[in-house]
Specification:
By secondary structure, the chain is of the alpha/beta class. It has seven helices and 17 strands. Strands 12-15-14-13-16-17 form a six-stranded antiparallel β-barrel. It has a five-stranded parallel β-sheet with strand order 3-2-1-4-7, sandwiched between helices. A hairpin with a 2-residue loop joins strand 14 and strand 15. Helix 1 crosses helix 6 and helix 3 runs antiparallel to helix 4. The chain is globular and about 65 Å long.
């Protein structure tokens, strides 16, 4: 059996992951990651994974399970790999995917590195709903969780082969009700705890506050242009306050509903379109990565998902060079937002993915 570090967030999922690692006979080591200054406060509704009460809950679960528990400071790595790209994306008119960056650069990057070198751990286990499968050639593959409603592989597509080899997902074969049942059976203090429902470093839920406090962003009004005729139809509060596909908070009435279709941060302009204007059959992904040791023969067929819990859409994927790929879908996809992740699947297997290009 192995020594496995368990990333414990203080929620029920990571608590049960730790319990299952120990139950399988491994030597479990619990670690709560201090990632940012939210760790200095308590969460009002106990829904944050990174506040002081979350650390307390993780520590209490570790004590119940009889496993060692440590707090690891990864603030510098989280700031560079998650917070700064998040802020830069919004300021550049893109929509970020901070959970993808956190998994790639922090949990299975910095944390995995420290787990192996400081604690002599073979792997890092998390409470993600995903499955790690060993292929016939001995390589590790990422597959969707049994509980398709909770599947989190969308946020894990960026893992490299060497990272996935040392990743463990104990909840991959379980449903959420089964996880809750195990927590109750073990009388864990997190058994009935509600799920985290916010970006961990934006405790109020409004990312604009993070832009103000962490990037010095100030609301600068600019024109709202209607895509139908190019007319100016209103004024917005600042380009970074909007995302592609947004309908609420535009302050315009033009008969048929309008949605944000384009954001130009250089001219501080927001363009609107009708719903059908935001439909497309083709887009480009950049900074693409694939999990298998070899890149798929191109062009290739796959199913693509452009947002968490979004529909899987059949597509053809063609190489463009320099880690850029064209994705041509059989049916239209809606509100393709630059910066967001587009993840490619072959059945249950995650092939890889990239960020949607402007």
């Amino acid at each position: 059996m192995s020594r496995i570090l368990v990333a414990m967030s203080g929620g029920v999922d990571s608590s049960v992951a730790a319990a299952l690692v120990a139950r399988q006979g491994h030597e479990a080591v619990g670690v709560w990651m201090r990632l940012h200054d939210v760790a200095d406060s308590y969460s009002e509704f106990k829904k944050s994974c990174c506040s002081l009460d979350a650390a307390d809950d993780a520590r209490r679960v570790a004590a119940q399970l009889g496993i060692p528990f440590y707090v690891m400071n990864l603030e510098r790595e989280f700031d560079a790999g998650v917070i700064q790209p998040f802020l830069d994306a919004y300021l550049d008119g893109r929509t970020p995917s901070p959970c993808v960056d956190c998994n790639t650069y922090v949990k299975f990057g910095a944390l995995l590195g420290r787990a192996r070198h400081l604690y002599d751990c073979e792997a890092v286990a998390t409470g993600h709903y995903a499955r790690r499968v060993v292929a016939a050639d001995g390589s590790a593959r990422l597959a969707r969780a049994v509980d398709t409603d909770k599947d989190q592989t969308y946020f894990l597509y960026g893992l490299r082969q060497d990272q996935l080899e040392h990743a463990r997902f104990p909840l991959g074969e379980l449903t959420k009700p089964e996880v809750r049942a195990i927590a109750r059976e073990l009388d864990l203090v997190t058994a009935e705890k509600p799920e985290s429902q916010e970006i961990c470093f934006v405790p109020g839920g409004d990312y604009r506050e993070a832009l103000r406090e962490r990037a010095g962003w100030r609301e600068t009004p600019g024109p709202i242009i209607d895509g139908d005729g190019g007319d100016r139809v209103g004024e917005h509060r600042g380009a970074a306050a909007y995302t592609v596909g947004q309908r609420q908070g535009l302050g315009v009435a033009l008969g048929a509903p309008r949605y944000v279709s384009r954001i130009d941060p250089l001219s501080n302009t927001i363009q609107l379109g009708r719903r059908e204007d935001l439909e497309t059959h083709e887009f480009t992904i950049e900074r693409a990565s694939f999990i298998a040791p070899t890149v798929p023969a191109s062009p290739f067929r796959a199913e693509v998902r452009i947002r968490h819990r979004g529909s899987l859409v059949p597509a053809e994927v063609r190489p463009l060079g320099e880690r850029r790929w064209a994705v041509v879908t059989e049916t239209p996809v809606w509100a393709v937002a630059p910066g967001q992740a587009a993840v490619l699947y072959d059945g249950a297997e995650v092939l890889g993915g990239g960020r949607i290009a402007a």
